[in-house]
Amino acid sequence: DEAFAGGWFHSGDLGVRHPDGYIQLKDRSKDIIISGGENMSSIEVEEALYKHPAVASCGVVARPDDKWGEVPVAYVELKPGRTATEAEIIDHCRALLARFKVPKAVIFAEIPKTSTGKIQKFKLREMAKG
Hints:
Blueprint: E1 13-17, E2 23-28, E3 32-35, E4 38-41, H1 42-50, E5 55-65, E6 69-78, H2 86-96, E7 105-108, H3 121-129
Parallel strand pairs: 6-7
Antiparallel strand pairs: 1-2, 3-4, 5-6
């Protein structure tokens, strides 16, 4: 019922409408990370991670933090035969992202996915909360 408030369908998707009418999806509202008052898109951080040659799959979620409220944490699955360290992944992100968007931790793990291959962010959020 919340999805149909005011006669409109509220999907939870966030995007921008360009002057030419093109609508670009930016993220899901529940996947926005608010760290120290700054909002960041998990998709933006994931796009930076996918530019690393060893990253096969990744998901970025918020982890509760006493100082900042939330901080980004990256779950990364490496390509077969490839290696990378947490420090290498973080350095890679530092070169591409604003400082507050860089993951505070990188966890190497198999990324939970649906039968169609979609990353299950809700499972990553549960894992991040510990």
